[in-house]
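User: I'm writing a tutorial on reading structure tokens. Could you give me a worked example: one chain, its sequence, then its tokens, then a sentence or two explaining what the tokens reveal?
Assistant: Sure. Here is the example chain.
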Amino acid sequence: MHRRCWIASAVLMVGAPRAWAAAQWQAALARARTMRDMAVRRGDQAYGAVVADAQGRIVAEAPSRVVTLGDNDAHAERQALLAAQHALQREDLGGLVLVGSSRACALCERAAARAGVARLVWPDGVAEPALIDAAERGDVLALMRALDDGARIDTRDLRRRTPLLVAVQRGHDAAAQLLIRRGADINAQDEIDDSPFLLAGARGRTAMLTEMLGPPTGSPTRPDSRRLNRYGGTALIPACHYGHVDTVRLLLRSSRIDIDHVNRLGWTALLEAVILGRAHRDCAVAAGAWCVLATSRCAGHDAAGARPGAWPVDHRRNPAPGRRPVLSAVPALRGRDVFLGRGSCALSQSSPTWVESGCG
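And here are its predicted structure tokens:
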């Protein structure tokens, strides 16, 4: 049976044909046609394929060898995948692209998905991994089908996004829950250093974070505290910045996040809540009265008006120009500038008093 009759049943790569493949793939397509012509000269089927990186550079190539090897599975695409795995000494081909002289059959698309290929390209179309496509749409049944058929759960697209990161970006709770429970990596970072855990904090995806941090599959140790966002920050800092109060509470209660972490801009989570927080009162209470991060001083001036050497409580009293005071947001206990929680406090320079959690 001619192998292209399998195309209609393809399930692991999803995409609508386009008029022409993008210009960046033209050199790879030309090389795939060269492989096709080589196969024809050898008396084999007229197909060729190459594996390329995201810039279109060739990693491996192969003609069809069905006749040459007497093997009905020796399609050009699968031969190219095997060559790439051999060349790179790894099975995972995440971030790479399979380029063919024509569209691959369903079995070759399935092999590409199992290898973690980020995209299939042929002369008049492209196909994205089914897991990425399903995560974009929040299609839980499609995710389950692809996973059950052997697709790599942490397949990456050309932006190095995993299906779980895509589900977090799109806000698809059910899809994210499935992927987390099936063992998706919550720390896998994309090309701009977003990870599912870090982005869930920044976007206020509390239900997703609950799944990451709690039973049946989550735990406080599942997030990798060494992974930071592109600003050198934790999930807690942008959660305070954007006023995601429930997210802040969850991170403080259920994770081992560093509440006093200072990012590359010199900001702690409480500074974000007090100076930049979009829900000043509630988020400052969550980040100040419940926990506290305020033992770190601001590193320097910036556009938001943070003053060098100032404690968060100083900004509470004297906000930057154009900012409203948040005196009512983080109350002082017995007249002292103290916020309780987890053994931290917010001190003013004039009153460097340490008060442990539960005292006052």
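What the tokens reveal: The CA atoms of residues 234 and 262 lie 9 Å apart. The chain has three domains: 3-123, 134-230, 235-360.
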